[in-house]
Amino acid sequence: MNITYHIDGGLGLEQLKRLHEEALGLIERVGLQVYHAPTLRRIAGQQDVHIEGNRVRFGPDLVARAVAAVHYPDEIAEAYAVISGAYEMNVTDLQTGTVRPSTYQDLVDLVKLGNSYGLYGSAPVRPLDLPSLLQELALYKVCYEYSDRRPGAMFDANPISSPQAARYALEMSQAVGQPLSLGLWIVSPFVATTENLEIIEALRGSRLPLWVATMPVAGTTAPITLAGAYLQSIAELLAGLTLIYLLADDAPVYYSIIDSIRAYPFDMRYASFVYGSPEDLLATLMQIQLNSFYHIPVVAKSLLTTAKLPDAHAAAEKSAHTLAAAMLGARIFTNAGLLAVDDIYSAEQVVVDYEIVQYVKRACQGLRFDDAALAVSAIEEVGLGGSFIGHESTLQQYRQATWDPALFTHSTLHQWQGQGSPELAARAREIARTRIAQQDYVLDADKRRELDKIYQRAARDSD
């Protein structure tokens, strides 16, 4: 028997149902702004679709049909999986730890590092030393070349700026036999992104999965209360889902599981997101319950922080957030390696964040409670004033009794000093360099050649 601990409380079923009903009302009364004429023409005249100029409103029966059509790719990660990457434009240098713009070599190194840990997700950084089109395509090319699970389809949010870039990305995905999906971002409040709709229209007939996401920010693009911001998030997502359902031509549709039913707190003092704050933690707990209500796979955005360096600030926010999310049932955690909201990608922070998730995994495994664990006979055998160090029960179980971390080691002061008193960030940086050097996954040579051909054609287009 195992004893585990959980978080109780939160939104009740009646509150969840009210949020849903209020969201349906907002979709019917407020709707979406759609400025893409081909999209408006495609959905005009369909049942429960009401168009007034650029405003599109949907009836609740149509929304219900869209929700019922949601289907996720067969790509759910294993328990305690880590997602990492959101194409950041800055890195902490692997040699010096200083912050600088990201390059193509950084992209290669960081994809290798992520693959050594089995990480999922979008490309870690955007290579700013390339022309704009190649920056986008490199996100796919390098992920395919140096990872057997990135970017995938369901975890992919790599930016695609134009139909031209989308066609090249599709050609690359087909060359390596990997899935590609297209997203529709809803810009809060209630505006469907025209650039995304142009890409969906341009690739019409490709039957690529379509997903929808939104990022309402409390007090700026959504009500300042988390409850109100979450209500808006639900309404935007359900409206966006209904729109892509009408555009999908029988292709799969789903919510982005990374940005599904999520709203974000905002600090008016600094005019910034406050990832990692107590309010952000509470927002994740709300998200987990709402995702469960809508049968959306749960991904906790718990490895986020406003800290600028891999320091105590970053560790405190990421650890508290991840443990709380796990105690409410989350088993996939995202944004490993990110600092300064999402301005910096740090290799050493990846190492720290992976360790945090392993800590949380061990805590959630709980503790044994059975006759062997109670150890009554061992206590009697050792008796008064004895020692358990040499007892058979200790010898049999000591390797499993305590988590053996790779980074958060349990050494004594004397042992640490004997190792030269290394700082944790420096040790994490060394671990990252070693793992990158040892990573040997490389895509099949024929597929690499095909990618190179496509990439070279795109390079000529970008001249």
List keywords for this structure.
463 residues; TIM Barrel; four-stranded mixed β-sheet; 17 helices; 47% helix
Q: What does this 3D model show about the protein?
A:
The chain starts with a strand and ends with a helix. The protein has a single domain (43-365, 448-456), classed as TIM Barrel (Alpha-Beta Barrel), CATH 3.20.20. A hairpin with a 4-residue loop joins strand 15 and strand 16. It contains 17 helices and 17 strands. The strands form 6 sheets. A 4-stranded mixed beta sheet has the order 7-6-16-15. The chain has helices spanning 13-29, 37-43, 60-68, 104-116, 132-146, 163-176, 194-202, 226-247, 278-293, 312-327, 347-365, 371-374, 376-382, 392-401, 413-418, 424-438, 445-462, and strands spanning 2-3, 32-33, 49-52, 55-58, 81-83, 90-92, 99-101, 182-187, 191-192, 210-214, 253-255, 266-267, 272-273, 332-334, 338-339, 344-346, 367-368. It is 47% helix and 11% strand. The protein is α/β, with parallel strands linked by helices and 463 residues long. The mean pLDDT is 93.
